[in-house]
């Protein structure tokens, strides 16, 4: 066996005198303890009450108690001239319970048979929040915000405050830790209400390197300033914005600073008020943006891709040379090139150069030769002409064959042939002939 | 060459002079590393002459000048079916000499074309035979130091066979005429190739292009009436020539 949980009292119910609706018997002394769940009041409504009437309900009566306190003692009926009848008014218990006691004497009138009473009860939610402050000086139920719930209530705090462990009172909360999300919202304690005096709060926005933080103050900005001859001075109340490697900036006055671009991924905000004066506070939204790198520029005889309106942290660009050109960096040829925009706003590699390729010396031709037709130093698009030593040799398929230095750094003929030509010997065609003129 | 003329420079640039153990023979350039000649020039008594006994000259028409610039041989390839131990069987009388270094062709040295497959030898068609061999008849043996040539017609095969048959009646051990041979010459005699011309070219010309139709092989006497020179029929050996050159 194990213990069953305490049964929750019903939210509503009914109660009737003995033998109702038949006349109740004499010498009755009955009691009903009614209850509804904690956090509710109990409301009792009579649907019918017909009890022998007497002065002060001395003989037969229904008495309603809240603990020991009598809330009412009833007898008679609706139309009787004597007795105390509740009428149509319900009875509201101060708490979640009521006790009914019904008693009858030993005689009943012969002509009129009284039937007793019938009543319904129900749970009525208590609005704890509207209850007056206790007189014991313990303070209000909730120090800042009270939220009524069915059967109970909740305390809550304004922005900038945290609920204490007593679940009732609030404490200033402005050590917000580090804000490392890419965007967020910050505000002074209690904003838009004035915070308590002598506030010293620190907010640190620290996002990933490669991003910069922008602060966007809302229009509702108020930090007490002191008017001096030099103008407003943030003498006693201020919000100081500190960015590494920059002069700290103290803000005060009634005009919102609007947008502040910090160009840093770390920003510290220090809000200070003293014991005097009034500052209603401030609020801001912060956002982050990727660090921007300078435009990569152009590469002669090459192409930088992709072409963007701006180049930001983690953007990659690559460079490809035009056909016939090769990528060179630091005097060395490289197969491919890409560079990334770093968190410091610099490209991690400088752009390479595109140099024209060359095919090297064309292969010499045995029993023939090669001559340059156009171009420079065997460079791209140079054209050479192969020929054979005629009339003793001839090129297969033609007298001369031209080869062009192509983008793949090979000499190629018009027919896309890479192999250099061959000189074939000419047979049976002497340059001198036997001639006989005599007949 | 009997009854011929001296060849002017550069007219027969494929002519090769072979010196085999002191004997003189002919040959012809067919590629930058290959000389074609007769097998009997390089194989005597069943033995192939050693490389160092063979000298190859080319490029000029005067033997005295020629001999100053020999070309070195790398290997000798005699037709595998040439078998002539007694000098009476000149069937398959063909051989190739591979040179150690390739020749650069010029006006004085040029290859002669090989015949087209299926090339024919038309009776009466004039050919040209050349060499540094004997220039007079057998009774008056004179060797020339100048390249000589003579133009001879192709002789009908049966006519040639008849002349050889006739010679057999007077002599013993006359070689047999086979289909791998053809004859050239004039019946009246006086023009012929002769000893020392063996291995040299008998060429025909088509469309201005000279091709090697025959190789000087053998004959009964030289330049005599009723006798003809016998030449190896090169068209029958194109496959062997190509195969030998490709494999070597």
Structure write-up:
- The complex is a heterodimer of chains A (439) and B (248).
- Chain A is mainly β.
- Chain A is built from no helices and 37 strands.
- In chain A, the strands form 12 sheets. Chain A has a 5-stranded mixed beta sheet with strand order 13-15-22-19-20, with no helix packed on it. In chain A, strands 1-8-3-6 form a 4-stranded antiparallel beta sheet, with no helix packed on it.
- The model of chain A has no long low-confidence stretch (mean pLDDT 89).
- With 248 residues, chain B is mainly beta.
- Chain B is built from 4 helices and 15 strands.
- In chain B, the strands form 3 sheets. In chain B, strands 10-11-12-15-14-13 form a 6-stranded antiparallel β-barrel. Chain B has a 6-stranded antiparallel beta sheet with strand order 7-2-3-4-9-8.
- In chain B, a hairpin with a 2-residue loop joins strand 3 and strand 4.
- Chains A and B meet through loops of A and strand 14 of B.
């Amino acid at each position: 066996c194990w213990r069953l949980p305490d049964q929750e009292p019903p939210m509503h119910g009914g109660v009737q005198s003995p033998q109702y609706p038949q006349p109740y018997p004499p010498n009755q002394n009955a009691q009903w303890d009614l209850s509804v769940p904690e956090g509710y009041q109990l409301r009792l409504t009579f649907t019918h009450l017909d009890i022998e009437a007497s002065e002060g309900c001395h003989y037969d009566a229904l008495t309603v108690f809240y603990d020991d306190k009598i809330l009412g003692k009833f007898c008679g009926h609706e139309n009787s001239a004597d007795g105390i009848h509740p009428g149509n008014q319900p009875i509201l218990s101060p708490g979640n319970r009521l006790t009914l006691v019904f008693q009858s004497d030993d005689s009943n009138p012969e002509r009129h048979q009284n039937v007793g009473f019938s009543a319904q009860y129900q749970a009525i939610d208590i609005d704890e929040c509207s209850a007056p402050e206790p007189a014991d000086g313990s303070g209000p139920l909730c120090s800042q915000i009270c939220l009524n719930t069915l059967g109970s209530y909740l305390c809550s705090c304004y922005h900038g405050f945290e609920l204490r462990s007593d679940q009732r009172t609030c404490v200033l909360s402005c050590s917000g830790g580090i804000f490392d999300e890419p965007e967020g919202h910050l505000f002074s304690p209690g904003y838009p209400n004035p915070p308590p005096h002598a506030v010293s709060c620190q907010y640190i926005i620290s996002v990933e390197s490669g991003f910069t933080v922008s602060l966007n103050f809302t229009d509702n900005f108020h930090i007490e300033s002191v008017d001096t001859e030099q103008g407003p001075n943030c003498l006693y109340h201020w919000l100081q914005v500190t960015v590494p490697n920059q002069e700290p900036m103290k803000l005060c006055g009634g005009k919102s600073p609007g947008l502040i671009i910090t160009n840093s991924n770390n920003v510290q905000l220090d809000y200070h008020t003293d014991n005097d004066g009034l500052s209603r506070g401030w609020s801001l939204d912060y956002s982050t943006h990727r660090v921007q790198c300078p435009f990569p520029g152009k590469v002669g005889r090459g192409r930088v891709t992709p072409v963007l309106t701006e180049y930001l942290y983690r953007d990659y660009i690559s460079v490809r040379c035009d056909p016939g050109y090769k990528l060179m960096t630091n005097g060395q040829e490289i197969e491919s090139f890409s560079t990334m925009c770093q968190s410091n706003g610099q490209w991690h590699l400088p752009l390479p150069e595109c140099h024209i390729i060359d095919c090297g010396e064309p292969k010499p031709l045995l029993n023939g030769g090669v001559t340059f037709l156009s171009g420079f130093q065997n460079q791209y698009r140079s054209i050479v002409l192969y020929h054979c030593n005629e009339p003793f040799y001839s090129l297969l398929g033609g007298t001369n064959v031209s080869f062009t230095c192509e983008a793949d750094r090979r000499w190629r003929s018009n027919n896309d042939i890479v192999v250099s030509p061959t000189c074939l010997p000419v047979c049976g065609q002497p340059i001198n002939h036997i001639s006989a003129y005599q007949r | 060459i009997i009854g011929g003329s001296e060849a002017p420079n550069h007219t027969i640039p494929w002519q090769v002079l072979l010196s085999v153990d002191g004997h003189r023979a002919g040959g012809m350039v067919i590629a930058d590393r290959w000389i074609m000649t007769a097998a009997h020039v390089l194989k005597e008594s069943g033995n192939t002459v050693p490389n160092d006994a063979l000298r190859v000259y080319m490029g000029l028409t005067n033997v005295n000048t020629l001999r100053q610039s020999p070309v070195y041989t790398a290997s000798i390839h005699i037709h595998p079916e040439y078998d002539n131990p007694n000098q009476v069987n000149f069937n398959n009388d063909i051989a190739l000499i591979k040179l150690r270094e390739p020749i650069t062709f010029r006006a004085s040295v040029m290859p002669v074309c090989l015949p087209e497959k299926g090339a024919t030898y038309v009776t009466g068609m004039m050919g040209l035979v050349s060499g540094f061999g004997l220039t007079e008849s057998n009774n008056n043996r004179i060797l020339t130091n100048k390249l000589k040539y003579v133009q001879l017609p192709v002789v009908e095969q049966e006519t040639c066979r008849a002349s050889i048959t006739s010679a057999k009646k007077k002599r013993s051990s006359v070689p047999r005429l086979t289909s791998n041979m053809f004859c050239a010459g004039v019946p009246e005699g006086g023009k012929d190739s002769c000893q020392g011309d063996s291995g040299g070219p008998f060429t025909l010309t088509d469309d201005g292009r000279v091709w090697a139709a025959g190789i000087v092989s053998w004959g009964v006497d030289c330049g005599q009436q009723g006798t003809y020179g016998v030449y190896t029929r090169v068209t029958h050996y194109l496959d062997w020539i190509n195969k030998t050159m490709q494999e070597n």
